[in-house]
Amino acid sequence: MTRINLDNIAALQNTFTQYRKTPSTQFADVLGTTANNNVQIAQSLSAVTPVGATNSANFATDLSNALKAYGINVPPVLRVTAGANGYELSGDPRNTQFKKMLADHPSLSSGFDGAIGSATMGRDAALKSAMNAFAGDHPSSSVKKFLKDFEDAQDPKALSVKFDGQDLKVEELTDKGWGPVKTEESFMAALLEAYAKYMLTQGVSLDNDKDKKEDEQTVDKKAEQQSVATS
Q1: How far apart are CA 54 and CA 157, in angstroms?
Q2: Label partner for 55 (CA 20 to 30 A): which of 129, 138, 205, 231?
Q3: Is the pLDDT at 34 greater than 70, yes or no?
């Protein structure tokens, strides 16, 4: 990776800000001036099947009917999470009846499996698509390493099913709480932000290496001059 100066970092961060406002913003030109790679950002993010919402209207209807049959009122909204003994309403006083309902109707657990499985597959596809768009056709070794480290850090803390009595959707747990499952656009924004930080760190590291080398050269030169003077 080539040395990065503060002007380039500022440009990178400015482009990232514009990208977040307009996802079609081209990012490749700025990256080309700050790193030795051929990162090509697509002009528009390719369509990815939306994740975070299931398409199974039948399951939502079956769940609603079962909840009513077991005297489980919704709202309040249900937050279904996977515990050690299967799906549960963690910390919810309705959990006892909910667990009994699932024990009597195993197909409902299969419905939750399908919802979370579908969201997980969509999330994985969105991550891969964003990484491929970021890397371009011929990513450098440093970009490959960056993307591998980024991918390793993207596993969700947890996934849950949220049901308000009519709409059922999958959400993921983040540092800020439960929210929408990540899409290609949100992964791309996270990629650009992480890469800006990565490049800034690399720039500081290269500057430090250069300063250290210059100090060593100065010491060697002074030592040589002293040796000549005393000979």
Answers
A1: 20
A2: 129
A3: no
The answer to whether 126 touches 184, Cβ cutoff 8 Å, is: yes
> Residue 86 carries which side chain, given as an amino acid letter?
G
Q: Phi/psi at 213 (nearest 5 deg)? A: -65, -40
Asked if 129 and 48 count as a contact pair (C-beta separation under 8 A), the reply is: yes
Contact 176, 46 (CB under 8 A): no
Which of 10-14, 100-104, 144-148, 218-222 reaches the highest mean pLDDT?
100-104
Please give the span between the terminal C-alpha atoms of the chain, in angstroms, as a whole number: 43
Q: Is the dihedral of CA 71, 64, 76, 91 positive or negative?
A: positive
Rg from Cα positions in the chain: 26
* Cα separation, 18 vs 27, whole angstroms: 9
**Predicted pLDDT at 131:** 93
- The CA-based angle 208-210-216, given to 5 degrees, is 105
With H, G, I as helix, E, B as strand and everything else as coil, classify residue 78.
strand
pTM equals 0.65
**Own/partner long-range contacts of 211-220 (Cβ < 8 Å, ≥24 apart):** none
Mapping DSSP to helix (H, G, I), strand (E, B) and coil, where does residue 76 land? Answer: coil
Q: Are 99 and 80 in contact (CB under 8 A)?
A: no
